[in-house]
């Protein structure tokens, strides 16, 4: 299949990242969180692609699987838990260790396993795994910004996936035969020049997309361990587990000399010095002078008294039903959820079936203004004026104000 994103000669890794991020935004190929810049994109169809991991022979032959904590890999984490395999997830930014083991409740239901596969579940149901633990991982699932059919991978630029692999190699948790899988949108599969790939870059053996399973037959060797000269004392302070690994390797007589200069910080440079010749970004990345978004609105009723808007947002994210804008009317026990198009709204309605919060069942349905021809239109709806007593009207205004401070509407404005 021909790549839909063309890489210009002489392009750098950051040129490729920016081009992929811009394309996904411009084509509206991602779910929450948006914009996708400086992230592993949570692409539409991620769960379909993740489901393919259980079709791989190596998946059925292994007992322990490490899956990165990225949002688009949630379906892969769920597949591991449903297969009753051991799921290992790296700790965020490696601050408190290398990885955690996810331990679901005994006899967990399918819904409980789904919760365990989310970012919140990873926090609540995880147990730290020490460096001295006897761990043998035969399958790694990593996120990517771009990947080639030859197995060359580009992440978001922070190097954590490469670092995790090198660290696991040091502790004997992986070997050269450990299979590495990445899960991406079809548009993220493109031609990456081999000269961009460095000795510390992890390569992949399989690429899973919503439409394909690609076996790369990559001939390039994977990293052989931690390259200490690429690190410095500042990084060791930020990632304490590196200190322990360095001490272990030093005891083994290995050269653990650190680099003298801090590593470059391309993320900040990319923000301050944007390329002027790159493709235009999506509507969500432009200033607020842009025309109003065309949306489809879903009504959510039955919201229990005392529920916080942040709790509702968490529930929506866990069900992959986060809107681009949320209008909160907690005093009236309702909220309105705006989605980019009717298809996104329909997906949200399916995801919200059976939603229960604080013991109350919520009702989700298409807002009255959207039911006729089901055509999306400019969102001109505002919270209805309350005609009741003054104190009730004041309560309504306060609830709406809370949503302004803690709702996806504010997140949408941050796309500038």
TrEMBL record:
<dbReference type="InterPro" id="IPR037171">
    <property type="entry name" value="NagB/RpiA_transferase-like"/>
</dbReference>
<dbReference type="Pfam" id="PF01812">
    <property type="entry name" value="5-FTHF_cyc-lig"/>
</dbReference>
<feature type="region of interest" description="Disordered">
    <location>
        <begin position="367"/>
        <end position="416"/>
    </location>
</feature>
<dbReference type="InterPro" id="IPR000504">
    <property type="entry name" value="RRM_dom"/>
</dbReference>
<feature type="region of interest" description="Disordered">
    <location>
        <begin position="252"/>
        <end position="294"/>
    </location>
</feature>
<dbReference type="InterPro" id="IPR012677">
    <property type="entry name" value="Nucleotide-bd_a/b_plait_sf"/>
</dbReference>
<protein>
    <recommendedName>
        <fullName>Methenyltetrahydrofolate synthase domain-containing protein</fullName>
    </recommendedName>
</protein>
<feature type="domain" description="RRM">
    <location>
        <begin position="296"/>
        <end position="369"/>
    </location>
</feature>
<dbReference type="InterPro" id="IPR024185">
    <property type="entry name" value="FTHF_cligase-like_sf"/>
</dbReference>
<keyword id="KW-0694">RNA-binding</keyword>
<dbReference type="InterPro" id="IPR002698">
    <property type="entry name" value="FTHF_cligase"/>
</dbReference>
<dbReference type="InterPro" id="IPR035979">
    <property type="entry name" value="RBD_domain_sf"/>
</dbReference>
<dbReference type="GO" id="GO:0005737">
    <property type="term" value="C:cytoplasm"/>
</dbReference>
<dbReference type="GO" id="GO:0003723">
    <property type="term" value="F:RNA binding"/>
</dbReference>
<feature type="compositionally biased region" description="Basic and acidic residues">
    <location>
        <begin position="392"/>
        <end position="416"/>
    </location>
</feature>
<feature type="compositionally biased region" description="Basic and acidic residues">
    <location>
        <begin position="266"/>
        <end position="291"/>
    </location>
</feature>
